[in-house]
Structures are given as structure tokens and as C-alpha cells.
Specification:
globular; homotetramer; 5 helices; alpha+beta; 8-stranded mixed beta sheet
């Protein structure tokens, strides 16, 4: 067992507090995870139904690959299975899920396209592996579901089909992003939230959404 | 007499500070209450005309079922009777009232419909009793009035007719929501404010309100 | 000489910090004053060109009726004469001036009408003397000018003509409001800023400004 | 060597924290510099890839005219050459670069015009050398590029051609502004960000951009 659980838990609580202040984790929504150990898989996971603006490090749970709590009888986040899926598909070290007004709006406006195309912004350079603003980022939109195992399969399929994406949206639900570390995951979320807001506000001025076609695997 | 008045007062002051920071309690608007005792009814109530961003626990009043202060000569919130009404109708443990830009705008835009229909959002799952995003939430809009006893009756009638609602809007006034505890009431307000903002901003892009018909009792 | 100058200075610094955080006093804009003594008139005045988010109580100046500093060689706010004018016309105890995005936008959009009509909002009840939401508030718009004595005369004329107004806008410049105390002035500014934002955002949805006629003296 | 490096580093960290809170430096974007010494040129520079909301004074680097770090093996900001260019062209004492939603949106909407014309706002008076609101500020838009030496040349040419401008936009990238001191640079950024947001929101209401012609050298 790795011994940085307290450090990860502190980092998660700090990120949660900052995101809640921005309105990205209101009403106990959203969840955060970080990998404590890979074999067997152990994740530090945020608990279910807790105010993310007041989340304390000691409230973080340790869960296994089946999203079962190991050191606790408290309930981990309902979406823990999605975090596990992303960690396995991407080898991520941390996964963050936000509910923001803009990511919610765009997840609906672009649902017919199956995703959002974001290109040409310098902000994209902050995403891992992106070297230039002349980059086209595809942010897939997956239909929401309460069937978590089924949704986890959809997530795995999407990540398998689009190997370069840095996040995805759940329709009328929110954004998932990740990183090798909590810091990189935080950076990715900030960048994607920024870009979604930028595109959303531009839509206001332009007077609506211009729909593109579906997006090939990349 | 329950002995958690200081604890409730602290919780109320903390919520007030956070909501004021978000712009939901500007200009001494809004009010907060929490049940100290049920028989006879005793509520911890925020005082009238106090800056909610600087509300201290020692400023909270104790009021009775007629909204009369018991331990003080200071004036409780003008809307104390509405808090009493909600506590009685719903058995709530805490009631919160916010004035936000978005709840004010939507209370006017949907006034002709008598309420706002909110459906399909994952955020709805944070409302007590809601298990899925495939839920339709009705947020009634009640006409504003300065006749507080009369308005309390309107509130009681509305809550009686719509037994599943988690809040209501007063037209051109603000949002009321509640919970079994202060934490749940806070969560409900955050969720409803989030959803009203999401719908309001979507209206910008869509170019206006699509009016539905009136809403049957549920 | 009254001995609450330190207390007023502390209050002004606290208000400035909060308003700057909201984006209402960016780039050293805006100014604040409070009456220390009425005969002869002495105002505590914010200094010129200082970051309002970092304004310290010890930076406040004491000025006289001609807006001349009494205890300092530092420069008081350029608009000190307007503060003096408002104090004299209204007997105000404190005057606050903000530059917000929304008050700037509406000061231009309604310039042709000579002011903004705000009615029917519960938030209006927080303005001194207003008992009901069924109130129509007139917020005059005065053309901006760098000729401060001349602008002070325009302000005096406007306040003389509209004896019930609680504030006014300077076109493409900002909002002035006041109160008997710093607390009341702060409340008035928060209420007017809230209402201007509410109306501004509603304009987005409605698709533009509906102009009314000029407004008779009230 | 000047001995105010620690002081400048502290000032830069404080500005970064405030700007990050406003959403102007999300996702490790943006950069800050301050002149420690002019001959030979030495700048305190923010490091590459660091969360600007958590930037510490001890993380600041010292770089030379070629943007090479002198006291460190850590990597300075990718855009250090632009900071050097601005310091040389304008004799600036500090340079700040932000990525905000509004500056990004307007950098795209007005790209065809080559810049944004901002006139008539009182806020313009906070820009160095501007005495009145009856001022027309030109904010050039330069095409973005990953070729930093080439971009630095574009910046130099633009600043040479428009000797009165207080900032410029990089298309779909962000805002650069500067000042004689960190305080003045901060003031300039706050003013320009405020004005860009004001114009952007006004565009919503007006229903789109009214394009002007190209802008002559000034």
C-alpha cells in the first residue's frame, strides 16, 4: 500500500473547495478520485452526498476495483465505477467530475452531434500531449444513465474509440476529465470548463449552435 | 428546549456568508430559519435588515409559531410567517430564502405558466426523494405580496396542492427551499439555483421562453 | 471633531475589499466617503489611484467642503466634489461609487431615456422609504464629464428634481448611491447593482431595450 | 543587481492568486514578469506549467534578455520572449498576460478588424496618459503563433506602429498588458478585462458585432 493517501486526500479536498467556490460542485454534486495503488487497484474516492465545499481529507474513502469501500462503511460516490473505468482505460492517476452550468448547457446543445469540437484556442496547449493551438479537441457526449455498470461500459467504449480525448461529457449531467496527477487533472478540468464557457458565451452572440457532423474515431 | 440553538445559529451564519458571497443574499435580502423545537414550535430565525454577509450567530432570534420573538426585542425577518408555514406543511427542519438574479428572472419569465418545469438534469438527483435524472420537477411561482398572513396562506395552499415540490418562487422576489436539516436545505438551494441559472442561460441561446401549459397537481 | 474616523475608515476599507472582489471597483476605479462631521463638513474620503482591493484604513483622507485634504498631502479621489454634493443635497452619512459591467452597460442602453425605470421587484424594499415591491424606482442617468464642478452642479440639479431617487448613473461611467450610514449605503449599492444586472440579463433574453418616455420629476 | 527580487516575486504571486480567482489564469495559463534590472536586462519571470492560483514567490525565475534562466534549471514561461520584447519596446517595469473568457471571445470576434476599438468609457482614464473618458483606445489583435521568436517580432512591430496602445490581444489566446510597476500593470489588466467584458456583454444585447474598418497607426 502506497503511503500517500493522506496527501492525496488533502489535495482532493483542496481541489473540491476551489471547484465548489467556482460553482462547479454545487449541491453535493461531482466527485473526485486519485490512485493510491495500481495492483491491486486502490483509489482514494470522495464520499457520496457530502458538500464538496466542506469536504475534509478524513472523509475520503479507499475503494477497490469494484468500487467497494475497504476501510469504511460509509458510501463512496455513486459514480465510483466510472472513475475506476477511466483509471483502467487511460492509466490516469486522478479523475475529476464537475457539474457546471456551461458544461451542462453544452452537453445538451451538442448532444445531436455526439460531442463538442473545440479548436484553435491557445488554452488547448495545456492538455497533455497538445503542442499547439492548431489542435482540434473532440469532447464526446455520452447519454446519461442511472445504470452505473452500463454507463461504465459506455465510458470504456468511448475512451477506446477516441484514444486522444482528454475528457467527456455526460448529457445533462457534467464533465469528466483526468490526469496523471491530481494537479494535471485539475488543470485539464479548468481548461475544459474555460473552453466550454468561452464557446457557450460565443453561441449567445452568434445566435445559436452550428452543428457539425459526427466525429470519426481519433 | 433543544440545546442545539448555538449550533444551528452557527450553521445559519455560515450558509448566509457563503450565499452572500455568491450574490444570493445581497442588500440584506433573504432569510434563514432552522427548527429548534417542534412542540411548541420554536425556530431560530435570521433578523430583519441585517447584512447576510456579516450575519453572526449571536444575531439569530428565537421565534414562535406566530413569528413572535421570544428572547429578544429585535425584529425577526419580515417573512418569518412563511418559514413557519413551510415548516408546518413539510415538516422541514430548515428553510432558506434567496434572492438571486437568475431566480428573479425566471420567476418573471415563467409567471404566466404558474411555475417552471425542470427535467432531465442529473442535478435533480440531489433533491430528496429523486432517484434519477429522468425526473420532472415543478417549481411553482406564487405572486408576491406584502400581506404576509395572506402570502402564508398562498404558500400553504401551493404546498398542499403540490406535495412533491422541493421549493417555490415568489414572483419578482426569490426562491424558497427547505430540507430536513440545514445541510439538506443548503443542498436544495444550491441545486435549484444551479438549475435556474442553467435554464436561464439556455434561454439566451434559444432566444426566449417556450411556454408550457399549466401544471396539474402532483 | 467626531472621533469615529478610524471606525469609518475601517468600514470603508472593508466595503472596498468586498466590492473589488465582486468586480465593482476594478483598476483603482470607484470611490467611497463617510461623514465625520457636519459643521463644518468633514468627510473621510478614499484616495485617488489606489487599488480598492488593497485599500487600508490608514490610507483614507479627511477632506473639507471644497474637497481639499486637511490632514494630508495625498490626493483625494477626483470625484470628491460629487460626494460633497450628495452629502449636502441628501444629508447622506456615506456615499459609494462603483464601476460595474452591468451599471456601465445600462447607463448607455437607457441614456436616451435619461434614466432607468425599475419596478415591481421585492429587492426595491431594501431602499430607504420603500415599503412594497409595487414601487417604481427611477435611476437618473447623467452625462459624464471631466469638469468636476460642472458635474457636481448636474448632480445637485438631478437630486433636486428627483427627491426620491436612491442613486444615479453617470453615463458610461458608473453608479452613485448613498445612505445615512455606510451600512445603508452598502445595502443600497448591492440592491441597485443586483437590479441592474437582473434587468440587463433580462434584456438579453428579450432581445433588446424597450424604451420608455422621459421621466417626470418625483 | 537590484535587491527587490523577493518583493517583486511576492507581488507577482499575489497578483497571480487574485487573477486566478477571477478565472483569468485557469489551467496554468498566463504569465507574469517584472524588471529586476535594466542593464543588463534581468526579469523575474513566472515558471512554465505551474498553477497560477498556487504560485509561490520562491517559484519565480530570473531570466536574461534571451529568456534564459540564470539562477535555475527550471523552465520559465514559454512566452518569456514576449515579455522581454514588451519591456524593451515600452520600457515597462512589469508585464502581465491573462487568458479570460471575454478577452478570448473578443480576440476572435474582432480579428477581421485587426483590433478592438474601445471609446467613451470613464474606465479608460485609469490607463496611463489618458486624461478623459473621451478617449479612443485601440487594442490590436495579433495572430497567435507557436513560433515565439517570430511572434516576438510581430509584437515589436505592433508596439512600434501603435505607440499609444496599453495592451494587445493574441487571437484565440489572450491579453497582454504592462505598466511601469506591477501595480500599474495590474490596474491596466483589470481595466482592459473590465472593458472587454462590458463590450462583450453589450454585443449579446445588440445581437452581434458591428465591424469597423482597419485602424491607422496612432
Amino acid at each position: 500500500m502506497s503511503n500517500d493517501f493522506p496527501e492525496l486526500a488533502s489535495g482532493m479536498a483542496a481541489i473540491a473547495k476551489g471547484f465548489h467556490a467556482r460553482g462547479w460542485l454545487l449541491g453535493t454534486s461531482g466527485n473526485l478520485s486519485a490512485v493510491v495503488q495500481r495492483e491491486p487497484l486502490r483509489l482514494a474516492m470522495s464520499p457520496s452526498g457530502v458538500d464538496k465545499g466542506e469536504l475534509r481529507p478524513d472523509q475520503m474513502l479507499l475503494i477497490d476495483e469494484q468500487a467497494q469501500p475497504l476501510s469504511d462503511s460509509r458510501k463512496p460516490s455513486d459514480e465510483s465505477l466510472l472513475h475506476v473505468q477511466i483509471v483502467k482505460e487511460r492509466g490516469a492517476g486522478a479523475v475529476l467530475h464537475t457539474h457546471s452550468v456551461w458544461n451542462t448547457i453544452l452537453s445538451e446543445l451538442y448532444a445531436a452531434d455526439g460531442g463538442v469540437t473545440i479548436s484553435g484556442f491557445e488554452m488547448l496547449k495545456g492538455l497533455q500531449g497538445v503542442q499547439t493551438h492548431e489542435h482540434t479537441e473532440w469532447l464526446p457526449i455520452i447519454d446519461n444513465s442511472q445504470d452505473m455498470p452500463s454507463l461504465a461500459v459506455s465510458v470504456a467504449e468511448t475512451l477506446n474509440e477516441h484514444k486522444a480525448v482528454h475528457g467527456f461529457l455526460l448529457r445533462r449531467h457534467g464533465l469528466y476529465s483526468w490526469g496523471e496527477t491530481l494537479a494535471q487533472a485539475k488543470r485539464h478540468v479548468e481548461i475544459l470548463e474555460f473552453l466550454l464557457e468561452t464557446m457557450g458565451r460565443t453561441l449567445h452572440i452568434q445566435g445559436g449552435v452550428k452543428h457539425g457532423g459526427s466525429h470519426d474515431s481519433q
